[in-house]
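Re: export button greyed out
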Amino acid sequence: MASSQHFTHPRMRGWDRLTIGQKRVIWAWGFLAVPILFYAIIRFYPTFTAFYLSFTDWNLLRSPEFIGTANYQRMFADAAFWQVFRNTFAYLIWGTPISLVIAFVISYYLDRVRLMHGFIRALYFLPFLTTAAAMAWVWRWFYQPVPIGFINGMLSSIGLPQQPFLRSTSQALPAIMVTAIWAGLGFQIIIFLAGLRAIPQTYYEAARVDGLGEWAILTRITLPLLRPTTVFLVVFSSIGFLRIFDQVYNMTTNDPGGPLNSTKPLVLMIYQSAFSSYDMGYAAAQTVVLFTILLIVSLIQLYLLRRR
Amino acid sequence: MADMSANRPEMLPWFARLQPGAVLVWTLLFLGGVVMVTPLVLMFSTSLKSAGQIYDLRFIPAEPTLNNYVRVLADGWFLRWFMNSMIVAVCVTVSNVFFDSLVGYTLAKFKFRGRYIIFIAILSTLMIPTEMLVIPWYLMSAQFGWLDTYWGIMFPGMMTAFGTFLMKQFFETVPDDFIEAARVDGMNEFMIWWKVAMPLVTPALSALAIFTFLGNWTAFFWPLIVTTSRDLYTLPVGLSSFAVEQSIQWEMIMTGAALATIPTLIVFLVLQRFIVRGVMLAGLKG
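Workaround output, generated via the alternate export path:
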């Protein structure tokens, strides 16, 4: 623990006999004592428990019974799981690029706007501060059929056909995804704006002197220099979409993840397996799958950031 | 942010630089912003309408009434949930500001064997999703009697790797001379951290506090699992159960949603600059 221990005479005792270096080491471990306990008990131990439980059959009433990989076999043979798996990736594969492109275009232009800049930025940022569970209900109301729903009301007032939205197996997932994109957009815009501000103006001035057009400046200077910001946002929002729960749960309370499982993401399946069916081992196996997916996403991020 | 834009090359007054393209861009951006807040505006306007008026989709209610708020607040549940959320969010925020910065400082400013291992161990917990831990946490809470208690809602978030990493990044920018000078003055290490180092990283501390508070104020998944009694619901969980009970009384649901949203909006309006800067800071360093 203390690297300079041998400087102290063995017969000397007590705090005052310690070297300055040793005292600092003791302070350091003192500062870390409670946090180390916390991370061990609240983070690491539960992680191992989750892995262990994924190999057991357990309904909370009797003690867990080790069943090997049966949970995984059951999961991979379960059509509902693959439906959920597809849904989860649908949120990710549509949600991340759509929200990032919108966020980038808005921040790219907002960065140049000076008239009411702060006010417009606030308009975009405001939804980020809302509670997902609350706003899910507002959007759910929007998606209702006429005469209640706002969007269908608008559609009918301009003569367009009504849409079923949350009642349709094909429209419900995009409808929920829009809510999630809306809620996350403000954060992405703020981060993009910060990234754009961090690019030194001299680069742009030099590019203009060299006669580069706006498009060339965007593709050769702005986007390459914005890469760390973009990678961060891609990973941050990917993880967000992979873990989507609040919106889906609240927008489909009458049939969670419905209609016909068409909107159910992995986290909702985990929630139902664990806390509706009390099938703890099966739920734990699903969390291991989620963990694996998120790990792969994080590793891709590390790889992309290393290459620079 | 206005001070930064003033450094841009164009120093002419805005009306001298008006170009059709710029006007179009501004208008589109403004309209986009209006669309972004429309759900909030409609939520508030519906919360001010009586049940008979909700089919009228006008933004400004014909006969605004606070009746829904009176009805929602009358039984006291919302106030209770509001208080629960506040207690949880404040306690978790205080704990994070204290422990994350203490650990971040120790890892940034003390040299000792094992430092790197501790740092990597803490950082590696970022890879573990909450969803994987909720089942063990639930079992732990059941064993220790933490279900349906404030501590049960709070304990998983008392420290975070994100906060620790953020604070470590910032403490590394604090010059060692400051700390050495305080040591020469005979301050103990705890007081050096508290009195010398902490005041130098207040922007980071406020960013951390904002993020932690907001995250816990809006948290839904774990509070939904750990609380089964109405008394202990946090605002999002309470709102969700309230909305299910109200079924199709949308004006009541919108009032509940508005009540859950108003506090953060007020905080935002008061601390706008601070919050935006904090988000930028945390996003770029984190």
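Strands of chain A lie at 56-57, 65-66. The button fix ships in the next patch.
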